[in-house]
Specification:
Chain lengths: ~240, ~290
């Protein structure tokens, strides 16, 4: 089968001052798949996503998207079709839900803006009911839905999700994961970051384990679920 | 309070609103108080005086020239004064110091040209007063009020209803996340400085019409600053309300006690207000950095 790598991270190293957050990290994300990266607190997961989306500059290494090097500026990276839904939702609390979504669609074709809006409302009916409320009034789960919907408004080719299940009740987590499956089925590639290793590994096609800024292991979700190392460190024995 | 005093106050309040809005826009997006705003007003008013008004071109061209000069000065200020600080993620104090330095620079440049002389805009109105019901009000005040109101309404529309406005609000809330939405935050910050300068230029020209043009005209920026603090730093609506209150209060005190006491009384009232309600009328949740 031909190489269908969509996003290629090669020997990436990132420092914050003296702290080496990522050391020689290489990751391949294949088109149409869910790729997952799991790791403990401080492993460097968010740093990896921030570097891909242009918020953080690497010391060395390169990132290719569809075979081409990524642009430097964050907004140009979004224009290429990469959208990053940050850790902790980061919805614009003082903007209405609808305005949050419209901001997400800043770069999308104006003529499709209202159609895209309706698409998100169909996917997340709760957002439609409350579209004129401030985003800050939503519950954590609803804010996560809004953050994902807002990301989808940019019509991405790949969506980077940073711990979408963080702090949510199991029922809501299941909803979010069902949604992640739907996003993949609609043709959008997913790079999923999680501490919730069990959930992430069961849904993903391929996964990496990040530990102290290095890739420790990689394999299909099934392989990692069955590996002793992962079991001990991330699945509680 | 007679209609005349009220209208005077509202018209002064409208000019303070323009100042306060220019101030609040930049405060919202970079979270610092831009103390070069006053000198921007002075410089714009003088540029319009020398390039347009002194050639006998009338109010509209003068006003437009002043506003556009303000926008351009705002853009230049952003580029030389704040861009690097922003990119380096330097401490907020640097913004503060940089804005004071810029302001001193602008004021110095204006003084080079004008010295400490007074300048007066030519009389833009052939009839000085109009009669509304029984009150005789100055035409100047009515025009200033009308133009300010239109400018504020257009701005409100842009901020609330357009893509640029949403981008400004998003960057003001959370710059990094706004970038992740595909927003060119550098461009949006430039737009904000241009709008802020535009409003500063309008205000500068109006102040020049109401009073006289001097190189220290911009010190009236404190009125806008106070108004935006009363309104609640970070709230645009609050800034306008605060400015109107201040303007009306000043006009009232002026009619009661004359100019010296009016200023003192309005400042004293502001202090009391801030003691009672430090978060301002609109009670914003934004904390000032510097
Ligand atoms: N802005 C920053 N300045 C300095 N150090 C940072 C910064 N951001 C992250 N770090 C450090 O880099 C390392 C990796 O952080 P990162 O946020 O990428 O971890 P993470 O895997 O996302 O953790 P979590 O699961 O808690 O979100 C940590 O040691 C962290 O303290
Ligand atoms: Mg993280």
């Amino acid at each position: 089968m031909e190489d269908k790598t969509m996003l290629k991270v090669e020997n990436l190293s990132v420092n914050y001052g003296h702290i080496e957050a990522l050391k020689n990290v290489s990751v391949d994300v294949k088109k149409g798949q869910i790729c997952s990266i799991i790791g403990a607190n401080g492993a460097g997961k968010s740093t990896l996503l921030k570097t891909i989306s242009g918020l953080v500059k690497p010391v060395s290494g390169s990132i290719f998207f569809e075979g081409k090097p990524l642009p430097k500026k964050a907004h140009k990276i979004v224009a290429e079709g990469i959208v990053h839904v940050p850790e902790g939702r980061k919805t614009f609390s003082g903007l209405t839900i609808e305005d949050n979504l419209l901001v997400g669609g800043t770069l999308a074709d104006k003529s499709r803006l209202s159609a895209n809006l309706e698409k998100q409302y169909a996917l997340f009916p709760i957002l439609k009911e409350r579209k004129h409320q401030f985003a800050g009034t939503l519950s954590g789960g609803e804010q996560q839905m809004l953050a994902v919907a807002r990301g989808l408004m940019s019509e991405p080719k790949i969506i980077l999700l940073d711990e979408p299940s963080m702090g949510l009740a199991p029922l809501i987590v299941n909803q979010i994961y069902k949604l992640i499956g739907q996003i993949r089925d609609s043709g959008i590639t997913v790079l999923l970051i999680e501490q919730n290793a069990k959930k992430a590994l069961s849904i993903c096609d391929y996964a990496y384990v990040l530990e102290n800024g290095r890739i420790k292991l990689s394999g299909t979700g099934k392989e990692l679920l069955e590996s002793d190392e992962v079991r001990k460190a991330y699945l509680g024995g | 309070m007679s209609l005349q005093i009220l209208l005077n106050g509202i018209s002064t309040g409208a000019v303070y609103s323009l100042i306060a809005i220019g101030f609040a826009l930049v405060f919202n997006i970079l979270k610092f108080s831009n103390f070069s705003h006053g000198a921007t007003m002075t410089a714009s008013a003088f540029i319009a005086y020398f390039l347009v008004a002194s050639k006998g071109w009338g109010l509209a061209p003068t006003l437009l020239c002043s506003a556009l000069s303000g926008a351009i000065i705002g853009l230049i200020g952003e580029f030389i004064g704040f861009r690097r600080i922003l990119l380096n993620h330097s401490a907020p104090t640097y913004f503060f110091v940089s804005s004071i330095t810029l302001g001193t620079l602008y004021e110095g440049l204006v003084t080079l040209k004008t010295g400490t002389n007074f300048y007066v805009y030519p009389n833009f109105f052939d009839v000085a007063t109009v009669k509304i019901f029984d009150a005789v009000v100055s035409k100047e005040n009515i025009i200033i009020l009308a133009i300010s109101a239109v400018a504020l309404i257009i701005l409100a529309f842009i901020i609330q209803k357009t893509s640029i406005g949403r981008q400004i609000r998003a960057v003001s809330f959370d710059r990094d996340t706004a970038k992740l939405m595909g927003i060119n935050s550098t461009l949006i910050i430039q737009v904000v400085f241009a709008i802020s300068g535009f409003f500063g230029g309008l205000a500068g020209c109006f102040l020049g019409i109401k009073f006289t043009l001097t190189s220290t005209l911009g010190s009236l920026v404190v009125k806008g600053f106070i108004a935006s603090v009363i309104g609640g730093l970070g709230s645009l609506t609050g800034a306008v309300i605060g400015a109107m209150l201040l303007g009306i209060m000043e006009a009232l005190f002026l009619s009661l006690w004359g100019s010296g006491w009016a200023t003192i009384a309005s400042f004293a009232l502001m202090l009391v207000f801030l003691l009672v309600r430090p978060q301002g009328i609109a009670g914003s949740n934004v904390q000032e950095k510097a």
